[in-house]
Amino acid sequence: MKKKKSYKYALKRGSKPVYYGITNNLKRRESEHRKIKKFDRLVKIGRACKTESARKWEKSKLKTHRKTHHGRNPIYNKNKTG
Q: Closest by alpha carbon to 43, among 65, 20, 25, 61?
């Protein structure tokens, strides 16, 4: 059975992250985001990995972000898990 691959990414406005996420298709996801979010670029983080690992990364990244931003997520992340 082939394992599904996921990509980790951040949407940035200038140097500021406005969203952290995961997807199995970066081009499609960037196009979807452009319809409703304001950002300068999508930055792929690392290599493709298993979906479970990508979800753990996203949750951890948001936790770290909240620690350094007075308990707040990036503006487009709505909850603690992405």
A: 20
Instruction: Tell me the pLDDT tens digit for each residue of 6-34.
Output: 999 999 999 999 999 999 999 999 999 99
Query: Is position 55 within any domain?
Result: yes
Exposed/middle/buried for 69, CB within 10 Å: 0-12, 13-18, 19+? exposed
pLDDT for 69 equals 96
**Domain presence at residue 80:** no
Could you tell me the two tokens for 81?
């898990």
Half-sphere exposure in the Cβ direction for 62 (13 Å, CA): 21
